[in-house]
Amino acid sequence: MAAKTRAARPTHFAVVFQGKPKVVRAFLHGLTLGAGIDATLYFCYTEGIEDDGRIERFAERFGLRASDCHVIVDARTSDLLKSLRKDLAAQTGLEIVSHRKVKSASMGFRYKAYTARHDREIRDALRDLPAGTKLRGFEHESKSDPKARGVEAYAPSHEFEARGEGTITGPVDKLVDLKRRVADYPLIAVDDIKLVYA
């Protein structure tokens, strides 16, 4: 009898480079392209992934950061970086100051909906999250006010109003993809992705 096998979940690593983000970006893209690796590279300052320092993250968002760059990479890229670590500073001027395995990630969210249809669509989407992710601590409340029927959208009272909030946990790549997909949806606000290290 053959044993059932599950597809291995991709492994990701958080790598902190001492060096300017533009230089790190160019280096990593050149390295993975030259090595023929179809790499996963998530730059924390552009993807909204929380790194170790709040002040540094604030500076990154305004292009002021010049000292280090936090990147999430796949296992093959991680192995390649480990093999180059000894000569990296001499050859490129960049230095790896931290290299940690990412165990999982989490992302808080909240939403407001002013129609029952939008509320239902959001709750249906939360029931149909990507494989490997989980919804935790979901709280939902809704209220109806028939007296507010026909009131304009910017009025203080609405015929229907729903609110929800919770946390989605899972692999960092799934959360980055999810965060990208909801970025243009005005009813949902998401927090930075928080990493859990192995």
Description:
- With 198 residues, this protein is α+β, with helices and mostly antiparallel strands.
- The chain folds into two domains: 12-102, ACT domain (Alpha-Beta Plaits); 105-197, Alpha-Beta Plaits (2-Layer Sandwich).
- Helices cover 34% and strands 33% of the residues.
- The protein is built from six helices and eight strands; from the N terminus they run E-H-E-H-H-E-H-E-H-E-E-H-E-E.
- It has helices at residues 21-35, 44-47, 54-61, 75-92, 116-127, 172-182, and strands at 12-18, 41-43, 68-74, 95-113, 134-144, 160-170, 188-190, 194-197.
- Strands 1, 2, 3, 4, 5, 6, 7 and 8 form an eight-stranded antiparallel β-sheet that branches.
- The protein starts with 11 loop residues before the first strand and ends with a strand.
- Residues 1-5 have low confidence and may be disordered.
SSE topology sketch:
Blueprint: E1 12-18, H1 21-35, E2 41-43, H2 44-47, H3 54-61, E3 68-74, H4 75-92, E4 95-113, H5 116-127, E5 134-144, E6 160-170, H6 172-182, E7 188-190, E8 194-197
Antiparallel strand pairs: 1-3, 1-4, 2-3, 4-6, 4-7, 4-8, 5-6
Entry keywords:
eight-stranded antiparallel β-sheet; alpha+beta; 198 residues; 6 helices; Alpha-Beta Plaits; disordered N terminus; 8 strands
Q: In total, how many domains does the architecture comprise?
A: 2
CA-to-CA gap between the ends?
Answer: 34 Å
Radius of gyration: 21 Å
Let me know the largest β-sheet. Answer: 8 strands, antiparallel
Helix fraction, binned, reads 25-40%
Percent in strands: 25-35%
Low-pLDDT parts are 1-5
Order of helices and strands: EHEHHEHEHEEHEE
Total beta strand runs: 8
Overall geometry comes to: elongated
Proper CATH architecture of the largest domain: 2-Layer Sandwich
